[in-house]
Each structure stands twice: as structure tokens, then as C-alpha cells.
Amino acid sequence: MHTLGDLAKALNRPAVWVRGMQGRFELPVVEGAGYSAAYLAFLRTVIFLRALNVGEDTLRHLWELEKKFLVLLHADNRGSPTWFLDSCGVRTNRHRRLLLSNFDIGVDLAAHSLQLGLNFNATLPELFAGAEMGEDALRVLGGYAEQLARVREHIATELPQTRAAAKWAGEFTAKHR
Predict the structure, then answer these.
(1) How many Cβ atoms are within 10 Å of 45's Cβ, its own excluded?
(2) What is the band of 78 on the pLDDT scale with cuts at 50, 70, 90?
(3) Which 3 state secondary structure label does DSSP give 2?
(4) Strand locations in 25-70, DSSP E?
(5) With bands split at pLDDT 50, 70 and 90, how would you rate the model's confidence at 79?
(6) Is 69 exposed, middle or buried (0-12, 13-18, 19+ CB in 10 A)?
(7) pLDDT digits (tens, 9 = 90+) for 42-67
(8) Residue 66's CB: how many other CB atoms inside 10 A?
């Protein structure tokens, strides 16, 4: 478990940056050494995506879609205040995981399909089904897939510049040591 200072140090960012991210992404703030490795992995993913020039507004929109989708799947009743972050850092089945929460939805994201009626929660169902309340998991997944495709396209476009910049930075720092 990590403190706010540990997170800041591990991310090479000031604590005020971490606090800003917590506010903008509506992440839980905990006292003391209450931040998990998954929490750190989420913030690191955001840093990586920002380094690839993916806009923060885009990431926040994607984050909102992921959380909405997870609520529709009833994945939000895991007994943890950071339930939507708890899968961050897991490296298995990458093709089945959402980008930011890293939640495994059980099907290949590229398939754009979902087994209807999935419910990751063992508690009693709500009075009305999500679709009856105007919330359709397939519609949210479709919007998420569109946004994710734009992010992937952006990363693919930016990757050559990022690699060139990393190579240049390595050469620059090696020459000045």
C-alpha cells in the first residue's frame, strides 16, 4: 500500500498533480498508506497515454464510459471503494480488458459483442432492468468501442514520434553524463 507521497514519487510528479488527477477523474482520496498498487497502475496508465499525446478530456470521457458500463454490468458491488481501479496493472487477457479500469469483460473487445444479461454481481436485481431505465449496456459498449478506436488510431499515429523522442532523449542524456 502507498501514501500520496509514494504515488507522487513513483510517478515522478508532485503530490499536487496526483491530487488534481484524483479530482478530475473523481478518484477516491484515502488517508495514510491506503493507495493500492492498482491505484498507482491507473495513474501510470494515464501518464503513458498523456505522453502519447492522448488528451485528458478524451481520457476522462473514456473513463466515464468505462465506469458507466461497469455499473450496468453490476461490477460495482465488490466491497471496495476503488472497485473500478482494482483490476489495474493486471497483464493477462489484454484483449478482453477495458483500457483504463483494466476490467476483464470476458469477451474480446474487438468483437464489439457482449453476452446480454451479464451480471457480475450476485445481489438481488434492481426493480427495473438497465435497458428499461434507458441504460443499454450494448449502447454504452458501442460508444466506448468508438472512443477506444479513436484513441488507438491516435496512439498509432503518435507512436513513431514518441519512439524517436525517446531515442533522442536517451542519446541526449548519455552525451551529457
Answers:
(1) 17
(2) low
(3) strand
(4) none
(5) confident
(6) buried
(7) 999 999 999 999 999 999 999 999 99
(8) 21
Measure the CA–CA gap between 49 and 52, rounded to whole angstroms.
Answer: 5
- Distance CA(121)–CA(37), nearest Å, equals 24
> pLDDT tens across 11-22, in order?
999 999 999 999
pTM of the model: 0.82
Q: Does an H or E element contain 148, and which?
A: helix 137-175
Query: Taking all residues of the chain, what is their mean pLDDT, rounded to a whole number?
Result: 85
**CA–CA dist 157, 104 (Å, integer):** 26
Identify which of 74, 58, 55 has the alpha carbon closest to the alpha carbon of residue 143.
Answer: 58
Pick from 101, 31, 110, 27: which is nearest to 69 by CA? 101
